[in-house]
Known about the structure:
Elements: H1 4-29, H2 33-76
Helix pairs in contact: 1-2
Amino acid sequence: xxxxxxxxxxxNDRAMDLxxxxxxxxxxxxxxxxxxxxxxxxxxxxxxxxxSHYDSHHERVERSKAYREEYAKRSSSK
Length: 78
């Protein structure tokens, strides 16, 4: 299982790859509008999936932070 930092690094790598794919979209599919639209739809779907992974990561970070704060409160009150 990945740590939160490793997961974020992996997500950032995937985001950079997706940006490159979007850049290549105009270059490789400029002459074929249908192929361009199909590829763009695929990349848009990939972007939404990646966005949901970022959202999930953020939620886990927030839960982890809340857990650590609660643990610190409990530990200091003993």
